[in-house]
Amino acid sequence: MLVSEIDMITPSSLSECLTQLSKEGRKHRLIAGGTDAVVRMKEGKWRPEIWINIKNLKELRYIEESKDFIHIGPLATHTDITHSPLLQRKADVLVDAAGEVGATQMQKMGTIGGNIGTASPAGDTLPALYVLGALLELTSLKNKRIVPIQEFIIGPGRTVLKENEMITKILIKPQRQNEKGIFQKLGPRKAQSISIVNVAISLTMDQDRKCVEGKIAFGSVAPTIIRARKCESMLTLGPLNDELIQNIAKIAWKEVMPISDGRATAAYRRDMASALLERGLYRLIRRWENQ
Amino acid sequence: MSTKWVGKRVKRIDGPEKVTGELKYMTDYQFDDMVWGKVLRSEYPHAKINSIDIEEAKNLHGVICVLTHKDIPGFNGFGIVVPDQPVLCSDVVRCTGDAVALVAAETLEIAEQALSLIKVDYEPLEVVADAEYALTESAPKLHPDGNLHSHVKIKNGNIEQAFEEADIIVENTFYSPRQMHAFIETEGGWGIMDDEGFLTIRCPGQYAYRDRMQIARSLAYNAERIRVISSPIGGAFGGKDEITVQIYLALLALHTNGRPVKIHLSREESVIAGIKRHPFKVCMKTAAKKDGTLLANQVKAIGDTGAYASLGGAVIALAIEHSCGPYKIPNVDLEGFCVYTNNGISGAFRGFGVNQVCMGIETHMDMIAEKLGMDPIELRKKNVYHQGEVSSVGHIVKSSVGTYKTLEMAENCDLWKNREKYKSEVCEPWKKRGVSLATSFHGIGMGIGLPDYGAASIELLPDGKFLVGVGCEEIGGGNSTVYAQVAAEMLKCDISNIRIVQGDTKNTLDGGTVTASRSTYTGGRAVAAAAPKMTELLNQTAAEMLNLPAASVDLRPNHISADGQIIPYKSIYEHLYEKHQSTRVEGHFYLPKEKEEIKGSGGAPHHLYGYLTHVVMVEVDTLTGETDVLRVVSIPDAGKVINPQGLEGQAEGGAVMGIGYTLFEDVLIENGYHKTRNFTDYIIPTIRETPLIETFPVEEPEQSGPFGAKGIGEVVMIPIIAAIMSAIYDATGARICHLPATPERVFNALKDLKNQKVQSTR
Question: Do B109 and A188 touch (CB under 8 A)?
Answer without folding.
Answer: no
